[in-house]
Amino acid sequence: MKILRIILIILVAAAVIGLLCWQAFVTKDLESGNLIRGILILAGLVLALVRPKRRKVSNKKALYQKAYGEYVQNAFCDDSKLEKKLFDAIDDYNQNKPAAAVAKLTKLRKECQRTADIYAVTVFTALCCDDMKAYEEAVRHYQAALQIRPSSSLASNMGLCFQRLGENEKAMAAYERAVQLDSNNANAYNNISVLYFREADYESALEYAEAALDANPQMPQALSAAAICSALLGYQEEYESYYRRAVATGYDGKKIKGAIKALDPEV
To answer: What digits encode the pLDDT tens for the residues 155-181?
Structure first.
């Protein structure tokens, strides 16, 4: 499109110049008004050709305050330069550049004056470490953030870190704390269900999968877990209902049936 626009501008400019030359040298009836109009047209074409591309300006502050308001709140609100550095770090995190974000956050930590400043830096350091699979470091920062301000989502994230470290008891405690802080945290309920499922406690796994579905009726993972647990427990009607709902959300029904057969070939 850009090349076509340039070609079109050049052709129109050539036509205007040709017309002016024709009137000036051939017909010799070039009027001053036509000359001025021609010059203006040419000037407009030149500006169109060299006009710099307009950049789409994004307001990082507004964008990230809306997305991460729970964590940002009033951090560095009394220092615009430090506030900008925070949002630059958050932008790195959001652009999947956690290492760059951590480097900025580490420098910014030295500038923290208020609890809100420390909290924001700590939370995003934890999130970045989590992304980098530095789970022990992430846990340390999650714990520090939770001491400042309770958060269901952060407790749930910390539980996942413990789970990936193989510390299931600590993971369970973190998930239970998450649902205590927010009874609608579907992810935390589902993660508790997963832990019970891995222990072959299908009754408890089903209970927490259903709790997740109370919070989010369209959660594919919870529907799948509920279907598998219901089948293994012999609850045929419940199994069929959860299976249909899971498939309706786009979940692969073959995976559900395969998991059931793998755990109990006689089902």
So the answer is: 999 999 999 999 999 999 999 999 999
pTM: 0.75
**What is the spatial distance between Cα 16 and Cα 234, in angstroms, rounded to a whole number?**
84
Task: Give the Cβ contact number of residue 72 at 10 Å.
Answer: 23
Q: Which residue has the tokens 């072959």?
A: 200
The DSSP H or E segment spanning 199 is none
Could you give the angle at the alpha carbon of 73 between the alpha carbons of 113 and 63, nearest 5°? 120
Q: How far apart are CA 210 and CA 223, in angstroms?
A: 8
Amino acid at 209: A
CB 24 within 8 A of CB 34: no
| Pair 139, 116: CB distance under 8 Å | no
Q: Which two tokens stand for residue 81?
A: 């330069």
> Please, are residues 146 and 113 in contact by the beta-carbon 8 Å criterion?
no
Q: How far apart are CA 201 and CA 34, in angstroms?
A: 89
In this structure, what token pair is assigned to residue 57? 């300006």
Q: CB within 8 A of 249, min separation 6: which ones? A: 218, 219, 220, 223
111: tokens are 């500038």
